[in-house]
Write a structure and sequence with these properties.
five-stranded antiparallel β-sheet, Arc Repressor Mutant, subunit A, Beta-Lactamase, 41% helix, alpha+beta, 5 strands, 2 domains
Length: 221
């Protein structure tokens, strides 16, 4: 059965991780290698938690002997899709959306649980950032220093920024990193960081999160 599953998922765009009833990895396709960085030879036969140390948005670790997908599979219950955070081989955080199918084995207690996943890092990080912005602004639109941010467009503080700095601020508001901004604008990462520092200085801000709050208050995104 494992060889058949390997063939089925060999050329899929989404990553595929197969785990047996004992939490041992039995399947790891090419897309999984590209996304996470481990080769199949490095993970096949290892406990799932060694490679797939999963956390949720609250930072709670989800892997272990009583993980909910395995429990659901043993009880012959459907396994719900979910968003998880893992780390790649080089230590980079990676958010994934995971759908799971359970493939029965030769006995009721035997099965292969196949996690099919794709990268949703940008989407999740943007949602987390927006949540922080909403908390920062509060229901009345106040900044942490007590100042209000409800001035009309004609009084927008963003007018002190150069066109390039306004462009960079838009990318920041979308949750882009300095490296991603540099790639989009065909500039160096150092130059992108310098633009960010100038934006903060001109607006009298201290953090990128405050800059995002300003951008959203003045609909600059």
């Amino acid at each position: 059965m494992t060889s058949s599953l390997t063939e089925i998922f060999a050329n899929t765009a989404d990553g595929a991780l197969g785990v047996d009833q004992d939490h041992m990895i039995t399947l790891w396709n090419g897309a999984a290698e590209r996304l996470v960085g481990y080769t199949a030879a490095e993970v096949i036969g290892r406990p799932c938690s060694d490679v797939w140390s999963v956390k949720n948005r609250a930072g709670c670790r989800l892997c272990g002997s009583d993980c909910s997908p395995i429990t659901s599979a043993r009880n012959e219950e459907p396994v719900e899709g979910r968003e998880i955070m893992i780390h790649t081989k080089v230590g980079r955080p990676l958010w994934l959306h995971v759908s799971t199918i359970v493939v029965p084995g030769g006995a009721p207690s035997l099965f292969t649980m196949v996690h099919i996943f794709h990268d949703v890092t940008r989407q999740v990080e943007t949602e987390i950032l927006l949540g922080k912005v909403q908390s920062l602004l509060g229901s009345e639109g106040d900044l942490p220093d007590g100042s209000r941010m409800s001035a009309p467009e004609s009084a927008s503080p963003l007018k002190v920024l150069t066109p390039r700095e306004q462009q960079v601020l838009r990318f920041i508001a979308h949750g882009e990193s300095a490296k991603e901004i540099a790639k989009q604008l065909h500039i160096s990462t150092t130059t992108a960081r310098n633009h960010t520092q100038k934006i903060l200085a001109k607006l009298g801000l201290h953090t990128k999160l405050e800059a995002v709050a300003v951008a959203f208050r003045y609909k600059h995104f």
